[in-house]
Amino acid sequence: MTQSYYEASARERLAAVLDPSSFQEILPPSARVTSPHLRQLDTPAAFDDGIIVGEGRLDGQPVLAAAQEGGFMGGAVGEVHGAKLVGLLERALDTRPTAVLLLVESGGVRLHEANAGLIAVSEVMRAVLAVRGAGIPVIVLDGGQFGCFGGMGIVARLCDTVIISEEGRLGLSGPEVIETTCGVEEFDSRDRALVWRTVGGKHRTLLGEAGELVADATAAFRAAAIRALALTPDLSLEALEREHAALGQRIERFGDCHDAVDIWRALGIEAPERLPLLEAADFNTITAGKRA
Amino acid sequence: MDAKLLLEQLFPAGQRVDFDGQYFSGTGQTADGEVAVIGTTDAAAIGVELAFRIAGQVLEIVRSHPRRPILLLVDTQGQRLSRRDELLGINGYMAHLAKCIEVARRAGHRVIGLVYSQAVSGGFLASSMLADTCYALPEAEVRVMNLPAMSRITKIPVERLQDLSQLSPVFAPGVENYLRMGAIAELWQGDLAACLEKALAAAVGHDARRDRGLARQGRLLAGPVAERVRHGGA
Known about the structure:
Structural class of chain A: alpha/beta
Shape of chain B: globular
Radius of gyration of chain B: 18 Å
Low-confidence stretches of chain B: none
Number of strands of chain B: 10
Shape of chain A: globular
Distance between the termini of chain B: 50 Å
Oligomer: heterodimer
Helix content of chain B: 40-55%
Low-confidence stretches of chain A: none
């Protein structure tokens, strides 16, 4: 029986992705580390502030892992939530695990504590880069109901790879934010097909924003995460110059494209309009060698 | 403050900075040598092209001018909100800029951010907030979102938010709030050239923002919670 990653809770995802019974939580709900800012606004708090952090094993290798719970405020980052993530990343500098796994699901900064959340995201950014600078890969898994947006969308792209399902969206400003600010003619957030082909996992993979597209199954995410353990972080000037060249080419090649389908056609994919209908395996076969 | 006036005050010994639309870059002269300057004006919305351009300039400085300090003067209303920017992966461009700043830091460049006008959300995150240390002018505006928009989304009455913002720095716009919470190290006033030289001479260390937030009583949990996770038992 296949377990959907999209439908699973953050705790269920950790249990299914890591080796069975290997996960040990740090500051679990029983520690009652909650957000004082939500209380001040009479908004319900969560005993884990919407993020679970701890140690475990993946394919026998020691790893640190964090999972954001979209069911609590859309996985939004507040002061405590962000500090747990920063602390976990810095723990990696001391314990030197094989990798750090981030099971992201977040709409970005939590507005109820917006300043603390924004600062926390920038501290997470610095910490991710410090961990990678120490030679430890940081692996992102993105397949939750809220996707990965706002500052967490930037964080995800600071990491070594993003493993994504079609359902796992990745971007900066969410479609609703763009529609509210710029109007429905700019981005119709209720047009689900448009939303998914713009910020969904298939387009992210074809652009080179995500490293691997997997099916919506916890076992598929686990298998891809095991493969990603072999990655070696590279923050050299040469690596950044290569990335710079690729991003420059992306603007040149696709800057005038109106829709994701135009980009897929420009990549040489035949009948690109069928891509949203394909299962992950067929998608990967058909698009092999044609990614930007 | 106007960017050209700011540059004159920062670099009385001279500067060569080229403006192109909302983007500018160049060098300024200090007592300790040349400083590279990269910035934006007119509350620029940072879209893929602008993020790419700033990142390219950072890489050019690392490649051609080893260890030259970098001063980021980014005036931004935040990330550009558009479907096209999302289609092209704007978060990847923002992350690229952040990585380029990190590469500069690791190569021995001092990176200093100065918020001289506006700093908002994603545009702030990917630039000045990634500097070794970020400073601001007293009249600068720093925010994620204004209170009326915040009220609409959180469904909390704006009057309530206004009242609470008198007591707590945690959500309301304001450079003072970011100062109290440790993200802004100091406000620069008076002799800006002297402020810059002092900042350039300051020691570079770890990310000290949560320590400052705790010392200034503006962010009490970030430091202790991170320490508990870093050192606590699983």
